[in-house]
Amino acid sequence: MNVLVQILTVCLLVEVGKGRKSWWYPYLVQLPRHYDTLSNFTRFEIQALQIEDAKWVSDKAVSNARSEWKEAVLVMQEIDLKSQLRSFRSWLWASATISSRTLHVPWDSAGCLCPVGDLFNYAAPEEEYSSDVASSSEHNDTEGALDAKQLDSYSVRLTDGGYEDETASYCFYAKRCYRKGEQVLLSYGTYTNLELLEHYGFLLDMNPNDKAFIELDADVCKISSWPKDSLYIQPDGSPSFALLCALRLWATPANHRKAVKHMFYTGSLLSVENELFIMKWLAKKCQQLLGRMLSTIDEDNLLLRCINMMLDQPSCVEGVEACSCRELESFLQVNCLVNQATESQLSVKAKRSLERFELVIKWRLSHKTMLLNCVSYCQRISDSLPSQH
């Protein structure tokens, strides 16, 4: 977080402290009372992510939030901000509000809070949306429909919204025609599920921009010019273009690489033997990663069902007995919920913890599914290659 973001966070807390006297009061009372961004995760929830990279990102988010709060506390004391608004809990709320709800403006890296404009839920960006625009002819009887020229103009925009100097206002643009009553969704960018959790506090069940990174031999990155963050597995299990190319070159004997480098950059198959080798290597790597996880995909699915049951029927004891899941029992112990009466409702704090735990399980399950999909992908490719005699 830069200094400008810290300033905006403090300003938000100052406005909250004014109560009804704040000009922003009608907006402030509509803000969420809590967020599930990574900086709000507990130690138990972070460890439950299981994947080292994800735990590192989460630890860093919590550490940064606490460090930034400590830096801002002196300022908040000097301006005599109410003591409850100077707490770390209040800082987490305000900083998560800034992280998840501000919109980009060219003159301030902190962004801006935009009432109404921050109500849109997220939709992952699609590579092609011209077909949605073309289908507008099906809705040409809708009152106020855009004409074809306007639709063509809007369809080529690269973003869903932005500040317009001409009108001195923040403008949003629909990339497809919406029917009356439909929810209007906004693309914030091509975020992975971990990035969505970090900055916004949610994830998508089906995220086309999600990625799974695996440990690569140092030589894989060294011999290719692809940046490391482009070497990943996609949601359907297929390796990214860069990862596939890098592995093909790496699997080629060093004295032959110069001769095939032109094929490498075009993404061409170098040889059946080469392709079989990297498919076998990639599948084995994913299987090893899955084998090191503390829970299986089936166990995660069972745990999710237990969590959903507890959220729908708030009885901690019944949930544990029905699930018989040690990890859920540990969660209840950590959150002091073991002896909660079966007829009682979950407290607000307990429900929020359970909802964050659900996000954790969903994230790691999605990650494991990508790895499993990669194993299947490698097998399919291997089976489709000509047999070698």
Characterization of this structure:
Its EC number is 2.1.1.354. It comes from Dioscorea alata (Purple yam). Keywords: Methyltransferase, Transferase. This is Histone-lysine N-methyltransferase protein. It is an enzyme of class 2 (transferase). This protein is mainly α. 52% of the residues lie in helices and 6% in strands. The chain is built from 16 helices and 6 strands. It has helices at 3-18, 25-28, 43-47, 52-78, 88-101, 130-134, 148-155, 193-199, 218-223, 241-250, 257-266, 272-292, 297-312, 316-323, 326-334, 348-384, and strands at 102-105, 108-113, 121-122, 161-164, 169-172, 185-186. It has a two-stranded antiparallel ribbon with strand order 1-2. Strand 4 (161-164) and strand 5 form a beta hairpin. The radius of gyration is 25 Å and the shape is globular. Mean pLDDT is 84; it is low at 128-158.
- How large is the radius of gyration? 25 Å
Number of helices: 16
General shape: globular
Strand element count: 6
Low-confidence stretches: 128-158
Structural class: mainly alpha
Distance N to C terminus: 59 Å
Q: What is the typical, i.e. mean, pLDDT?
A: 84
What spatial order of strands do you see in the largest sheet?
1-2
Estimated helix fraction:
40-55%
What is the string of helix and strand elements? HHHHHEEEHHEEEHHHHHHHHH
Q: The biggest beta sheet, please?
A: 2 strands, antiparallel
